[in-house]
Write a structure and sequence with these properties.
Elements lengths: L4 E4 L5 H19 L12 H17 L4 E6 L2 E11 L2 E9 L8 H12 L5 E6 L3 H9 L3 E10 L14 E2 L5 H12 L6 H8 L1 E7 L2 E7 L5 E6 L2 H13 L7 E6 L4 H9 L3 E11 L7 E2 L6
Parallel strand pairs: 4-5
Antiparallel strand pairs: 1-2, 2-3, 3-4, 5-12, 6-11, 6-12, 7-8, 8-9, 9-10, 10-13
Helix pairs in contact: 1-2
Length: about 300
């Protein structure tokens, strides 16, 4: 694409980037979703608003990690990334379907990677887009398969009582950052303020293990970090127990290093599907840990 311009993202680019993200991810979903799943649908307005809030947050914390590609004055792709302590994270990355295969993704990834110069480690969630996976491997990332656990929770199989898990808040952020450093090598820092505002936060802090999890009101587990498998399991059981009985739940981005999550899925008869990859550089796969889709 000869007229391509790559420049820093601005606040007035966010809406266009959300539309590109929705279209590009929907195309990948349609090509790769399991047949037994409901047909992929465009992002809802509520989810689009959350996406825009997350991206505005990244523009505020990491303007040097947020880039767009323009062709003839129109945004055709973007990449957002962040640095947390000595960890570089690719938050979101997409190219408009009509502009794919023309080198746009490569130059955007290079711009985002430059934001992480000097970082010891790198990590992000990757879809099953083959072109992107090749670029990630060429950039030095190891690709670890992930699974998604999905289905209706068999209520009769839930534990009778889940002790010591409580709702969390800002007073827990220091503890949560210490857990982050232990599990993934870097704190989330300011990201916890946004995530706790958008989602339910549950925490456990015991001598046998500490941890936290973010979840939707209907019982989708969005992220989890813990110092022991026992703490991770207690948090997951709490999220599942609070799920809506008439709604399927979903927990994505589970790596083989987190077999405790598989054991819970088997116990309540959730489906187990391969889905995407965890890309890491100079980092062991975190455990007990379920990364957030954007902030990991």
């Amino acid at each position: 694409m000869s007229d391509l311009v790559v420049r820093p993202m601005r606040g007035d680019d966010v809406a266009a980037c959300e539309a590109i993200s929705s279209a590009a991810y929907l195309e990948v979903d349609r090509r790769t979703y399991a047949r037994a799943w409901p047909d992929p649908t465009p992002r809802t307005q509520d989810r689009a608003q959350v996406w825009r809030e997350r991206t505005a947050h990244l523009l505020a914390t990491d303007p040097g990690g947020c880039w767009v590609a323009e062709s003839q004055g129109e945004v055709v792709g973007f990449a957002t990334s962040m640095v947390r302590e000595l960890m570089w994270i690719l938050a979101s990355y997409a190219v408009s379907p009509r502009a794919q295969g023309q080198g746009v993704g490569r130059v955007l990834l290079d711009a985002a990677l430059a934001h992480g110069r000097g970082c010891l480690r790198g990590m992000f969630n990757a879809s099953q887009d083959q072109g992107a996976l090749r670029r990630y491997r060429q950039a030095g990332f190891d690709l670890h398969p992930q699974i998604t656990l999905r289905g209706h929770v068999e209520r009769s199989l839930l534990p009778a009582g889940i002790a010591h898990v409580r709702d969390g808040g800002p007073g827990d952020f220091e503890l949560m950052d210490s857990i982050d450093r232990r599990t993934r090598g870097a704190a989330h820092g300011t990201d916890h303020g946004l995530l706790a505002r958008l989602h339910r936060l549950v925490v456990i802090d015991r001598s046998s293990g500490s941890g936290y999890a973010y979840a939707t009101p209907t019982g989708n587990l969005l992220a989890l970090a813990a110092t022991s498998r026992r703490a991770a399991a207690a948090l997951t059981w709490e999220v599942l127990a609070s799920s809506a009985p008439d709604r399927a739940v979903e927990m994505g981005h589970v790596t083989p290093a987190n077999a405790w999550a598989l054991d819970i899925a088997v116990a309540v008869r959730l489906e187990i599907h391969p889905r995407g990859f965890l890309a890491v550089r100079h980092l062991a796969v975190p455990a007990p840990y379920v990364p957030h889709a954007t902030f990991l």
